[in-house]
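Project outcomes to date are best conveyed with an example. Our students and postdoctoral researchers have been running inverse folding experiments weekly, and each run begins with a structure described purely in tokens. The record below, which covers 345 residues, was selected by the lab manager from last quarter's runs and is presented without edits.
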């Protein structure tokens, strides 16, 4: 009996030792599953000095950290991958992952986006943030899915200011006959026609050379763009008019988006939220310095008084009625109601 007990104990001990050795590297652990890295290419129209580019560098930093290397973001500036409309076409085809155009060219896909081109729509940035980050802004982003795009969020282009090479502009009459480049958007064209200008639509990448060759007299963009793209080299006058607030709309190819794992989609959305808040502040902090930079580089900068601004607002007000049917009366009402909700009396 005793002998049997000893033999069984010995067997149990030997089996335990064998199991122990096996667990200490006896069998190779499953090789670390190689993580398939996905590259996200992002194309933009502005240069590497722009807040648009800096905001995407912040996006890159967050995405690559939070995805633990599963995702890599490569940013292509200066319209290397094409202008806004061309890049949106690539997203819809599934040949480019992401772009961040102004809202204005999105009107080529869906005219309701022209509501953001109505002159003097937003009273200030505080109201902009409340509306774009609220349910109405989200509704616009969600509507992009009908066009093969996934709306991610809003960065800031900003309030637009007129520059030209001919004369100081303080009132609508000063605009008469000026050849002004606008974005490819019917509301912008109509508004500048109401002011007596001779507007021409043009992709952003052609603007500098058109001003250099004097095929256009002027253009209008936020001061960060006007200064950081060195428009002071070819423009003599800058009117701080704040005539339109333009958002940048971060968007992803829906075809490619649908192939991403949910956790990676969540990383991209979270990174957009954090980077866009950071970028809007960065853009606003840069604005004053850029406006001063135009003056330091020999440009006559004219800041419109509220009364002078009102003259431009009154002269361009008819575009709201003119485009009500194309934008949609309900859309205009919904956005205006949301703006009124957040505008302090
Ligand atoms: O990438 C964005 C730019 O291409 C463009 O949207 C900037 O506001 C702009 C403009 O005037 O075209």
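After processing, the design step wrote out the following sequence:
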């Amino acid at each position: 009996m005793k002998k049997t007990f000893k033999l069984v104990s010995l067997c149990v001990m030997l089996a335990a030792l064998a199991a122990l050795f096996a667990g200490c590297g006896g069998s190779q652990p499953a090789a670390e599953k190689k993580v398939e890295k996905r590259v996200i290419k992002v194309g933009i129209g502005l240069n590497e000095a722009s807040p648009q580019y800096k905001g995407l560098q912040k996006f890159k930093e967050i995405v690559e950290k939070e995805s633990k290397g599963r995702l890599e973001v490569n940013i292509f500036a200066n319209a290397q991958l094409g202008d806004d409309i061309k890049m949106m076409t690539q997203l819809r085809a599934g040949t480019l992952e992401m772009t961040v155009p102004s809202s204005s060219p999105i009107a080529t896909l869906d005219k309701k986006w022209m509501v953001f081109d109505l002159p003097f729509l937003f009273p200030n940035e505080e109201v902009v943030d409340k509306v774009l980050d609220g349910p109405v802004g989200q509704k616009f982003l969600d509507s992009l899915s009908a066009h093969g795009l996934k709306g991610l969020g809003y960065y800031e282009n900003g309030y637009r200011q007129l520059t030209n090479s001919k004369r100081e502009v303080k009132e609508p009459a000063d605009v008469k006959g000026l050849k002004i480049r606008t974005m490819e958007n019917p509301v912008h064209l109509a508004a500048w026609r109401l002011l007596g200008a001779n507007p021409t639509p043009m992709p952003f990448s052609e603007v500098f050379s058109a001003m250099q060759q004097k095929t256009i007299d002027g253009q209008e963009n936020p001061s960060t763009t006007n200064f950081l793209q060195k428009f002071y080299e070819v423009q003599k006058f800058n009117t701080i008019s704040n005539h339109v607030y333009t958002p940048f709309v971060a968007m992803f190819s829906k075809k490619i988006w649908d192939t991403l794992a949910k956790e990676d989609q969540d990383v991209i959305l979270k990174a957009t939220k954090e980077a866009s808040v950071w970028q809007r502040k960065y853009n606003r902090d840069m604005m004053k310095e850029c406006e001063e930079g135009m003056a330091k580089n020999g440009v006559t900068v004219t800041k419109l008084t509220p009364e002078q601004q009102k003259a431009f607002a009154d002269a361009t007000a008819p575009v709201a009625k003119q485009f009500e049917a194309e934008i949609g009366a309900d859309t205009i009402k919904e956005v205006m109601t949301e703006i009124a909700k957040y505008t302090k009396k």
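The first strand starts at residue 38 and ends at 43. The chain has 14 helices and eleven strands. The training component of this project remains on track.
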